[in-house]
Amino acid sequence: MFSAANTIWVLIGAALVFFMQAGFAMCEAGFTRAKNTGNILMKNLMDFCIGTPIYWLIGFGIMFGSGTALFGWIDPFIMKEYGAVLPDGVPLWAFAIFQTVFCATSATIVSGAMAERTKFSAYCIYSAAISLFIYPVSGHWIWGGGWAAEMGFHDFAGSTAVHMVGGVCALIGAKMLGPRIGKYGKDGKPRAILGHNLSIAALGVFILWFCWFGFNGASTVAMDSDEAIESASLVFFNTNLAAAVATLACMIFTWARYGKPDVSMTFNAALAGLVGITAGCDAVNPFGAAIIGLVCGILVVLSVSFFDNVVKIDDPVGAISVHGVCGAMGTLLTGLFATGVSTEKGVFYGGGFHFLGVQALGVGATIAWTAVVITIVFFVIKKTIGLRADAEDEVMGLDRSEHGLTTAYAGFSILPEEGVFTLTGEVPPVAEGAAAVIGPVTTAKKAEKAPDEPVYTRVQIVCRPASLESLKTAMNGIGITGMTVTNVMGYGMQKGKPEYYRGTPVEVTLLPKVQVDIVVSKVPVAKVIETARKVLYTGHIGDGKIFVHDVEDVVRVRTGETGYDALQGDD
User: Fold this and answer.
1) What angle do CA 531, 536, 541 make, to 5 degrees?
2) pLDDT of residue 570
3) 241 vs 215, 285, 338, CA distance in Å?
């Protein structure tokens, strides 16, 4: 007989966990650059839409079929009997949708760590692989009656089964991809590549925190008894407490370490606390939950720094640290702080080291399975269709190269991004007959000047916003001491290349550009143009234009200096 209370509880939980996709989408979009926003949102949508039919077709049977201790069974369309694993009073399809949204969560974690440089086609394939067999097999071990469950491994809502699996996939993927262009300098030191919208990222964190009450709370899969109500209440309290303590710990730790509280890292810490408490939220008391939150709030900072500075794995949103590292740590800490209510007692409650050993074995086995299989998946993708987007597409932004989307923020002005980007490639020579443009200038006005009189030339460069930082660096390298940069809108050859929005052709007439004005005298004009072309060239329409103008004189306002003297030094 079905229980209305239990069924409604599970369905509400499924809806909340589904809405976590919105939270992940907002976090990843906010912590990355504007030129990749559409790509990020598309991938988070497709995680769920690819994973749902695949999990229905194959994944659910592998995970919950009563086959062996290692593997369930192949059951297309969920046609067999699952009474042995169904919660009391919950219909099969309510349980199936609840497990489907958990599967989608595991797959979407990978998106953030591999953001801004992964081919969309490759992403769709490995997202499918996670939902098809990587997550279901380890899920069978932990939740489907497999060997880990038989040993007493406890992962109540998925610190290991969901989050750590996603974190390990993210780690392998980010390592095989390599860092984003401009992330590391020639000295090997990381450069900060700022996310474009902290407000959206914050909204994502709050959405995830809210939905986590369904993620953890509804995992009780019951609300029809006093015991179930008490358990769900404790789960809610522990979930919130761990997140809050982790956030506070991170704020204080970064304040002490960097001199100011780090905003984006503190947002990461809230998620780290939520991930950490997910394994043992039903098994620890509030004191244990607070300690787990404290450890995860500090650990996430150290972990992000380790992967960024030591291992040099570029993770734009901190997914490896938040989900992988803190997921594993939360599961292990359950072996220390479990009070014995729903599991064996932990080490600190007189239970000895057996339960901790089981937790460690489950974590280690899940890491090994996930790492080996996802490595094979990524390797096959890399050797066939390719895993990483082309360098010029990455610099341009995946919104445009992968989806034909000029910008995800039509109608809004987006400032040029920070970061240094260097593309290597053969730059074609200047067309025949144009050499006079970059050679000695012999216009009428300059011909009138005395041979020893300085010549002033204005070089005006119009280029993509993404190329600004590399252009600035190159100009500084040849001795240019000043420039004026203006955000402008314009078009050139792109005017004739239509894009499509919702199936309707959009004639792109005005695109965001930057205009860089440089007045030179000492540095040869030819050298300026040659250097600029080398930096800006990608071979695609939209590389930009360079205009050369005569300048009669220059006056420095502050000192009254004119001519050559006015161009020297900083102003």
Assistant:
1) 140
2) 55
3) 15, 11, 16
**Looking at this protein, which amino acid is placed at residue 476?**
N
Q: Where are the alpha helices (DSSP H) in 114-197?
A: 120-129, 135-143, 147-151, 165-177
State CA 489 to chain mean position distance: 29
Q: How many CA atoms lie within 13 A of 14 on its CB side?
A: 20
| Predicted confidence (pLDDT) at residue 11 exceeds the cutoff of 80 | yes
Task: Classify the C-alpha dihedral 430-431-432-437 as positive or negative.
Answer: negative
Q: How far apart are CA 326 and CA 403, in angstroms?
A: 34
Does pLDDT of 352 surpass 90? yes
Instruction: Give pLDDT tens digits for 80-124.
Output: 999 999 999 999 999 999 999 999 999 999 999 999 999 999 999
Distance in angstroms (rounded) separating the CA atoms of residues 73 and 67: 5
d(CA 148, CA 126): 26
Question: Which numeric CATH code is attached to 4-396?
Answer: 1.10.3430.10
In the chain, CATH 3.30.70.120 sits at 415-566
Judge contact between 99 and 60, C-beta under 8 A.
yes
- In three-state secondary structure terms, 88 is coil
CA distance 480 to 93: 68
Strand, coil or helix: 68: coil
Please enumerate in sequence order all residues whose Cβ is within 8 A of that of 467, keeping only pairs 6 or more positions apart, or say none: 395, 421, 514, 535, 536, 544
Structure tokens at 434: 């144009």
pTM: 0.86
CB 285 within 8 A of CB 346: no
Whether the CB-CB separation of 481 and 570 falls below 8 Å is answered with yes
434: left (phi over 0), alpha (psi -120 to 50) or beta: alpha
Burial of 54 (0-12, 13-18, 19+ CB in 10 A): buried
Q: Is the pLDDT of residue 148 over 70?
A: yes
Torsion of Cα atoms, 498 then 501 then 506 then 510, to 10°: -90
Please tell me the distance from the alpha carbon of residue 335 to that of residue 173, in angstroms, as a whole number.
30
Q: CATH 1.10.3430.10 in the chain: give the residue spans.
A: 4-396
How many angstroms separate the Cα of 367 from the Cα of each of 100, 102, 362, 379, 426? Answer: 21, 18, 9, 18, 43
Contact (Cβ atoms closer than 8 angstroms) between residue 522 and residue 569: no
What fold, for 415-566? Alpha-Beta Plaits (3.30.70)
| CB 293 within 8 Å of CB 346 | no
Q: What is the pLDDT of residue 469?
A: 83
CB of 293 within 8 A of CB of 276?
Answer: yes
- Tell me which amino acid residue 327 is: G
Please tell me the distance from the alpha carbon of residue 437 to that of residue 525, in angstroms, as a whole number. Answer: 9
* Pairwise CA distance, residues 421 & 406, whole Å: 20
- Asked whether residue 519 carries a pLDDT value surpassing 50, the answer given is yes
Q: What is the pLDDT of residue 435?
A: 45
